Amino acid sequence: MRYLVHIAFLLLACSGLSACTSSLPAVYKMVQALEKPDPARFENFDGSPGLQLLEVHSPTSQAMLVLGYVTTPTGQPPIQTWYDAEQQLLRLQNGFMINLTGIENALSGTDYVWTARPAELGPWLPVAKTYSQPAQQLFGKTIELAYRPVLAKDVDSRSSVLRKRLLKSHTNAVPTLVWYQEMSVAGNLPGNLYAFNQDGVPVYGSHCLVPGECVEWLFKTSGSLKP
Question: How far apart are CA 212 and CA 227, in angstroms?
């Protein structure tokens, strides 16, 4: 019965969505992977070619999420809504966390301020955000954002399976990823970290809900890093 519930939800989430065109065997294979306790269980995960996948790690768990739908606010990057088999969701805007459910200290909502899209290729980065975090008694808190470029050799991967995997897959002599550490102008934010490809497409993100408690995600498509 537990598997049937998971399968039914994934089929419902994918029905009618261009991002989710999996067959029943592919969904069942995903459910099996979700039940394994191995922290590296998704490293070689192979989903349906039609699925858009996101691997997410928190301090206590790992999950594979499926892209549910995408909306594009006027003058802003698209917003992606991701689901797992337990109906937990994560919403990202150009790789930046908007909200998250099913975890302690989660964000209930975030509104980002975006400048005009860069004329040249490169990541589109927000300049400010207003967010709420009920567990920390934070409601409508606004902060200005700044970014520090980080060289791949300086990325701290000691406690991150996803960073290690990403760095290992991009060891070419010519850099294929650009890394940015997010900070507040006032300097009172945990160091969130993001990676983009050369076209400015988000590949990886890490958001610290409180110091030492971070959620990270890696974009995947059919078991491969994206792009």
Answer: 29
Run of H or E including 28: helix 24-35
Residue 32 has pLDDT above 70, yes or no: no
Residues in the chain: 227
* Mean pLDDT of the chain, nearest integer: 77
Residue 198: partners with Cβ closer than 8 Å, 6 or more residues away: 121, 176, 177, 178
Report pLDDT digits (tens) over 85-137.
766 689 999 999 999 988 888 899 999 999 988 877 789 999 999 999 999 99
**How far is Cα of residue 84 from the mean position of the Cα atoms in its chain?**
13
Confidence of residue 174 (pLDDT cuts 50, 70, 90): low
**pLDDT band with cut points at 50, 70 and 90 for residue 173:** low
In sequence order, which residues have a C-beta less than 8 Å from that of residue 66 and are 6 or more positions away? 10, 13, 14, 19, 20, 30, 51, 52, 53, 54, 82, 83, 84
What is the DSSP secondary-structure string of 106-167?
Answer: --SEEEEEE-SPPSSSS---EEEEEEEEGGGTEEEEEEEEEEEEE-GGG---TT-HHHHHHH
- Lookup: tokens for 213: 């408690």
CA distances from 108 to 39, 56, 97, 187 (A): 26, 18, 10, 23
**Long-range contacts at 101-104 (CB < 8 A, ≥ 24 apart):** 103/58, 103/209, 103/215, 104/135, 104/209, 104/213
